[in-house]
Amino acid sequence: MATKKTAQQPSREDILAFLAREREAGGARKIGIREIARAFGLKGEDRVALKRTLATLADEGAIKKRGKRVDQKGVLPPVTLVDISARDRDGELIATPVEWDEDELGPAPRILIRSGRGAKFGKKLSGEPVAGLGDRALVRAEPDHDAGEGEPPYVGRVIKLLSRARNHVLGVLRIEANGAGRISPIDKKQAGRELLVAAEDIGESRDGDLVSVDLVGKTRFGAPRARVRETLGSVTSEKAVSLIALRAHDIPDVFRPEAIADAERAKPATLHGREDWRALALVTIDPPDAKDHDDAVHAAPDDAQDNEGGFVLTVAIADVAHYVTPRSPLDKDALERGNSVYFPDRVVPMLPERISNDLCSLRENEDRPALAVRMRVTGKGKKIGHSFHRVMMRSRAKLSYQQAQAAIDGRPDEKTKPLLDDVLRPLYAAHEALRHARDLRGPLDLDLPERKIMLKEDGSFDRVVIPPRLDAHRLIEESMILANVAAAETLEENRQQLIYRAHDEPSKEKVTALSEFLGTIGVKLAKGQVLKPANFNVILERVKGLEHENIVNEIILRTQAQAEYTHENYGHFGLNLRRYAHFTSPIRRYADLIVHRALIRALKLGEGALSEMPAAELAEIAARISAAERRAMAAERETVDRLIAHHLADQIGARFGARISGVTRSGLFVKLIETGADGFVPAATLGREYYSYDEASHSLTSRSGMSYRLADIIEVRLVEAAPIAGALRFEVVGGGERRAPPRNPKPFKPGPRGGRGKR
């Protein structure tokens, strides 16, 4: 009797070598357990042994698992977003990845940028971008096996420049008695480096104006010279604050003439090739100050016999793909922006107003083209079917969250009263079903209130409010999540490439750090188990209402990875979903526009379909829009910091309640309770004692036991405000606790200097 031949189980070294070869090949295909098993001829029980080996490698940190994807840990992907930051001794450009977790992976690897050299790259490609120092770019990178000790371990070629190094600087103009000027740059990295401006190069700018200047050379004494290119207004005006963020982050805020012409030529869509849904009572529910409306909803009981007690939930989304066609001027500008950016005093839209606020906005009682999904859900919120349609719709009403909620709570107004029984109540009933399904799914449930800055009519700071979370918000949120899932499922079923919204599970290092912290407050996190959002929710529920609630929420948030756009699916950990794509906001997010085009192509819904493109190009787009999202988040956050610092600048000496939001060896980061303003308390001001920094408990503790820990409530006094930098410096005047000093303390002697630092 013949014995069954068993394939030889690959060693750890074999697996790592295979992953290295695949990554070196530069392909965009996903490598998972199936691909590794196929490469080594493993079947049946042999695959079980392979899974055990991969789990061991992941535990040791040799590989990283993202969903079903397996990769070497700390290895750059083939397409990487980089900043070109230096030159080597031979004058070659050196880049480093923009996204790199140094806490988990160590120092970021360097990449030698080559053009027209190297065995892999061959001759310089026609039209290949020529990069320079300070540029941000997408690079195709690969390991350089010929690199010597101390040389960059990667070699790369620029495939797309995203932004040129700025030869202009943003700063405050000070005019001297002789008519010449000096520029104080707002960039903290250039602090103390003044630029000189000749009187004839100042133009009509005035003393104290915020200006953008071009660098034009140096004086004979070596000081840099500049010429004013744009005056942005008085630095004392709050309206200048968002302009600082725009310029500082190179966020485009002026559409190219070709894009504007594209938008102005656009004509309203017709019924041709569309289903007529204008009789369906869809409504938009948005913030009261919303200017564009890209989603509308409707719900009704499902009459089908196989879904008793269920609902038909419809989500209709503005058909942006009808107006913004691939590779058109409008499309190029939208991709460059990546998303709309929201400041307290303005919005920098992804698309011109002719498109975003007019032709694509689902206005009340006006015909608008839409891409709609009709979903059948059970009485317990489980989706049992869905279908996509290209339609013409007419919104029955434009409602605010507060209006819709008031109507359901028994306070309808003239607009909502006629809609209450036939439109709003079915929507809320469907939402109750979705909420039941959500509770069973168990997404991450962090309590993170959002603050909103309110401005006065003249644009100056008024106050900070925390809008209440209403069921109306949750109704729209859960409806959009379900529509996004339906989009991803449909595209996968049709084998259509797309851009996913993915969120990785927390890294082993961050989970270990969380576990160590929880141990200090008597909470155990089971080791060795597969973590799910529900595990974090159990911890959050356990500390709810207790003294540790705030700190546990904060640290669990910091444990999470950052969501991103990717052409590979590794699931969404926070939402606890296997597949997820952004479909519901194509007016303000380019990722959603890609998904719309993919659906049009997969379902043959007419014009505006996604063009045929290699996976590598889709990976480039995903990297670009992920970078644009981070850029927007940084600009929005810094603008809020500057606005509040401007507001507090004349309150030096005032006292505030604050919560410690970060602890480092150099001091405490604090967040004011009333306004949410961020500031810093240098360790040098905490007292005359030596302090020890304990990473596990996130605290600074003196030898006498005086301790300041993350999330503690303290009282602080404002010492200094720098509105242009958005920086606030405080000193502690109350709070802190007497705690036992940490074991094996690392002594820290307060020095004479403190600073806001990087977080």
Brief overview:
With 759 residues, this protein is an alpha+beta fold. 28% of the residues lie in helices and 27% in strands. A 5-stranded mixed β-barrel has the order 3-4-5-7-6. The protein has a 5-stranded mixed beta barrel with strand order 8-9-10-12-11. It has a 5-stranded mixed sheet with strand order 13-20-19-16-15.
Strand order of the largest sheet: 3-4-5-7-6
| Whole-number tally of structural domains | 6
Helix content: 25-40%
Count every beta strand, where a strand is a DSSP E run of 2 or more residues: 35
* Overall average pLDDT: 85
- Total helical elements: 16
Low-confidence stretches: 1-5, 116-126, 745-759
> Based on CA inertia axes, which overall geometry fits?
globular
Give the radius of gyration. 28 Å
Span between N and C termini?
A: 67 Å
Q: Hey, roughly how much beta strand do the residues contain?
A: 25-35%
User: How is the main sheet built?
Assistant: 5 strands, mixed, barrel
Structural class: alpha+beta
